[in-house]
């Protein structure tokens, strides 16, 4: 390509003298005959120049233009691909923007449902824990009541025995005591005979 450009410039430089203006002033007959032959040479020179330019153009132009056409077609394909990709991305962005509000609403609903579910789980766990605490407390209270009843019974029994012993001492006569000792001895003797 660069070589063709240099050859074209060289041809133009060679053609410049061909188109140079003739000097102004009176013309002579010899100038006219010289001018006629110069004119012929000028036309020949011009024809050679045109032929060289035509040859160079015919030789290099198809390859240049086919390469240029291929570059342009490739650029068009690339641009078409980029345009389609950009349109696809734009449509995707538009689609996402259109569904953005619904997506936000869905996320809010999901988080609200999750919070409600977590709240229900915490309420259930708290209820279970409170039920266990109540059950444990009820068992403890029952155990303390049972222990208090037993302690009260023991104390009442001791008081009853003490009271009964005191009454027996006060009411018992010496004959009652002797009878009691005799009954005790007989019961011991009855046991000793059985063994």
What's the quick description here?
With about 200 residues, the chain is mainly α. Helices cover about 90% and strands about 0% of the residues.
How large is the share of residues in beta strands?
under 5%
Helix/strand order: HHH
Number of beta strands: 0
Radius of gyration: 67 Å
Mean pLDDT: 82
Which spans of ≥5 residues are poorly predicted at pLDDT below 50?
none
The portion of residues assigned to helices is over 70%
Per DSSP, the total helix count is 3
- Taking the alpha carbons of the first and last residues, their distance comes to 144 Å
Q: What characterizes the major β-sheet?
A: none
**Shape category:** rod-shaped
Structural account:
The protein is built from three helices and no strands. It is an all-alpha fold and 195 residues long. The longest helix has 143 residues, at 29-171. The chain starts with a helix and ends with a helix. The model has no long low-confidence stretch (mean pLDDT 82).
